[in-house]
Description:
The complex is a heterodimer.
Chain A (H helix, E strand, L loop, with lengths): L1 H9 L1 H4 L2 H51 L1 E10 L19 H15 L4 H10 L9 H5 L5 H12 L7 E7 L2 H8 L15 H13 L2 E5 L2 H4 L13 H32 L4 H14 L3 H15 L7 H26 L2 H9 L4 H29 L3 H5 L20 H9 L4 H33 L4
Antiparallel strand pairs in A: 1-2, 1-3
Chain B lengths: L1 H9 L16 E2 L6 E12 L2 E12 L3 E5 L6 H7 L10 E9 L2 E2 L7 H7 E4 L10 H12 L5 H14 L3 H4 L12 H13 L5 E5 L7 H14 L4 E5 L3 H7 L2 E6 L2 E7 H6 L4 H7 L5
Parallel strand pairs in B: 1-11, 4-9, 4-10, 7-8, 8-9
Antiparallel strand pairs in B: 2-3, 2-5, 5-6, 10-11
Amino acid sequence: MTDSTQMAQTGILDKLTPSTVAGLVGKSLTKRNRGETVFQAVGIGAISLAVVLVLILFGSVFSKGLPAFWQMHINLDVTFSEDRIKVAAAPVREDFANDAEYQDARNKWVNSLNFVNYNALLLDALSKHIPEANDDRRAALALVTSGERFALRDLIANDPSVIGQTLPLTLLADANVDVWLKGNIDRSLPDEQQQLSAQTREWADRLYAEGIIENNFSTALFMNSDSRSSLASAGLAGAFMGSLFMMLIVIVLAVPIGVCAAIYLEEFAPTNRLTSLIEVNINNLAAVPSIVFGLLGASVFILAFGLPMSAPVVGGLVLTLMTLPTVIIATRSTLKAIPPSIREGAMALGASKVQAITGHVLPLAVPGILTASILGVAQALGETAPLLLIGMNAFVTSVPTSPLDQATALPVQIYLWQGNELRNFFEGRTSAAIVVLLAMLITLNSIAIWLRKKFETRW
Amino acid sequence: MEATMTNATASTAEQKIQDRTVPESTVGEVHVENPRMTARAVDVYYGEKQAISNVNLDIGLGQVIAFIGPSGCGKSTFLRCLNRMNDTIDVCRVEGEIKIDQDDIYDPRIDVVQLRARVGMVFQKPNPFPKSIYENIAYGPRIHGLVKSKVELDEIVESSLTRAGLWNEVKDRLDQTGTGLSGGQQQRLCIARAIAVSPEVILMDEPCSALDSIVTAKVEELIHELREQYTIVIVTHSMQQAARVSDRTAYFHLGKLVEVGETKQIFTSPTHELTQDYITGRFG
């Protein structure tokens, strides 16, 4: 021991005189400074790259998506002439003994409206601007999207008094007309490669030049459900409502269950094998690919419990399972971050454990719990894969009115649209749907930030 | 055991302090005439490790008793046994008997909530709740249902703060957060908070270690005034502080209570060598 001490004394430490130390430190300093510069440069580079990529993504999505919110419309004076609409007078409530009979008669009457030749009405209206329209009826009718025939029917059904009148209507142009006039297809392509006939293209150009066809902001994207027969009127309403129902289910189920589980595990659970097994499993669940949760939903909720396919209730339950680990883990780390001195302070005053937690720990944890919940919900909102396995990629043309109705979801709708054959039209449509989804996510995240600021306790 | 005892008495001044043997039984006067709390044969274990062994001690009514000793000697652990704060640590196990006014505090029939209302505590680091000054004080009386009206609560808040010597400094800003006060004010707020539930005993775990000397003097003065109404147990690292504020002093070493006695006697003529070494600053 003494020997080694002496050796150390005559060893390297003695050779290090102040001047040599200064020299050596100076030398190592240049190296260290270089290292720091490189480190900073790499960091700035990484951030710049990320920012550029995000800008490219947003740029491409917005440049394609925003024009899709505007669509070609045809302004026509449609005459609902009695010659064309040969139906009996609409039934009136007073003529019937009870509601059921009236409803019966009315349904029959509305059904008879299906046999009206709406194409003839449209041709009459188009002839006012294109006198030769009747020469090529097919080409003329291709200007208006097919869904507008049903719009005309619904107009009569809602207000039978329009029969005999002439109404100025703004009708959606066909998807291909939209593509043609917006220049989303190469105009120099030969006829056989064009979606529209030469006659239709010529008339479309003429009406656009005359101002009969206009590019207006379209509510169809928001008000309508998906459509395959009338592509121009395909909308997000069904998917939006489906997503909304699922989000509500996730908020109602995942947030309270997750927060309660986290509080129990963090504050009350005894440390034993069972608890640690549960903890390990929760952490593992967070890493399970989301499609596995879809399989689980299909086999448990649909096959075993007999819940309907393609329904937001099943989607919501699957997403709840998927979101739970996120909420639990984030809430637990929030609770862990609350200083134990606060708990001790409350308990030393005679507060019970529950009182200390509800009175002091939870109020401090609220911002973190809210953020965790909203981020979990946002993650669920953007999830696609598990929904495909429970049938939520179905083609649904009605807007769901309850979580038990068939529906699809926003990200699934994006997936479906990007695979549509009429790419020229749906590329913009898809980007528009992405813009809507992004808007929802940004709204949710802004709410999270706002709530965090609002409930934050200043120390 | 025979051998260790002989060893202890045979140890001389030349021997290293590490070689000194901690006595099996406490030197000095463990008992007092009028005890508020009594501890008999208290052992504390953290899992397998024994933190405190065989501590016998009376805490006198209306007295200030100081626990001193080197770091890790078990004085804070013993202090936390007195209001069962060790219950919050899963692996901690307490054996022996601790009584307050003849009630065994570890009796299963005793509710820990009731005990802590009788035995309050002030911590090393001031830990006011991140709420208003008023709420900090009102919390205890409210959860225990000590008051029936807002007027009574206001009165408790005022008199607690007055006793803690803080009323004049904060009376105009009771709605501001307690965490916004200075360190010394925060600690006095914590003392006021403890007083507000009218405890019989107040435990203080190194209450001044995070405070500067001027503020420390204020808190010590406060302890001096509080001895009229409360029994106070204070753990401290500062021997001067123990000498200034306490009536009796207990010296802990390696989980054992080595010596206890009148503060004056402990500091002027300690009986045990370990106490002597610690007091004279040979280790600490």
